[in-house]
Input
Amino acid sequence: MVARDIMNWMQKAKFRIGMANCAEYMEMIQNVVDNESSHEEEVYLRRHLKLCLKCLDHLNLDVELKKALRHKLQNEPVPEGLAESIRKKILTSA
Amino acid sequence: MEESSTVNKYSELEKKRLFNDEFMPHLKALYNFGYRLTYDQDDAQDLVQDTFMKSFRFIDSFQQGTNAKAWLFRILKNSFINDYRKKSKQPPKVDYQEVEGYYNSEGTQKAITTDLRVDTVKNMIGDEITNALNSLDVDFRTVIILCDLEGFTYEEMAKILDIPIGTVRSRLHRARNLLKEKLIDYAKGMGYE
Output
């Protein structure tokens, strides 16, 4: 546990002084895309993205992919009568 | 998740209210989840009916004020694994230890992202995205559906899927990389690139 704390502290220090490499920002990018990031992570990532076009591209692509999935995927229409048949089954089982 | 030790004793009236107001509004999302897991309208219907029957039978273990949608998705996912998958007797196709160990290796992350462009994704139509998603193994497809389509948080996904949050994160990462690979293939086939 202590060793892990030290590792975490060192990792954070790397981000704080901007010494982390691109692979280490991957998780932050994912967190930002999925709205799971902390304020601290956003600050570190924003600073890195000013300097790194590759990671910026990566972030933009993932954001666009998420948007495309949400808006372009076809929905399968719910079969007519399914809601009714479920309600009937519930009533007879109760 | 909401299967905490406290079991409620809802009145018949309350059960019906919960069922109609909290559960039934998720019919469309559940049906689509079932359909995307099975690609079959009848199987999706069976899964959804089964999910609602179970939700009513075990309604006392649902805590009011918690996320009914996540609770229902978990029931459907379990029905899918326990009933449907057993029926079709499909062997698991993915060795997760092998796949998820790749998460932090730099090599696997770089090759993919450079190839697919934002504009390419923007120009893609629903068919291409749908086909690419459908071609993924069901466990990878599932995390993308839960996260990107249904907007569940990592914590909710961990509870729906009964896996640690770290596994949710790495599986999602891997799923997106696989999806990008498929989309690159489509893009090449369509002459986008």
Summary: The CA atoms of residues 131 and 182 of chain B lie 9 Å apart. Residues 165-189 of chain B form the longest helix (25 residues). The radius of gyration of chain B is 19 Å.
